[in-house]
Amino acid sequence: MEILACPIDKHYPLELYVFEEKEEVIEGMIICPKCLRWYPIKDEIPEMLPDELRDEKEELSFLRKWHDKVPQRILLEGRPFNLSKG
């Protein structure tokens, strides 16, 4: 986390939210507090892709799965996808 910056706006530092952990973070989320972009961590791998390479259906499914642990601001205003549309 110490070396990561947002790939979109280069903001540093980023916020880490851990949803499932063993020796490593298994599932979680990395958030840029400046642009509110969020990046999922799945199977210990952070997926920090540009917006155009992200799969909306898969990302929304991730948000729904972890909605009780995702910060409210990301659920409603997160980029590039959020749950505010229904």
Description:
This protein has 86 residues and is α+β, with helices and mostly antiparallel strands. It has one domain. 19% of the residues lie in helices and 24% in strands. It has two helices and four strands; from the N terminus they run ββββαα. It has helices at residues 56-65, 72-77, and strands at 15-21, 25-31, 38-42, 45-46. It has a four-stranded antiparallel β-sheet with strand order 1-2-3-4, with no helix packed on it. Strand 3 and strand 4 form a beta hairpin. 20% of the residues are buried. The mean pLDDT is 95.
Number of domains: 1
SSE class:
alpha+beta
Continuous helix count: 2
Strand content: 15-25%
Number of strands: 4
Q: What is the alpha-carbon Rg in Å?
A: 12 Å
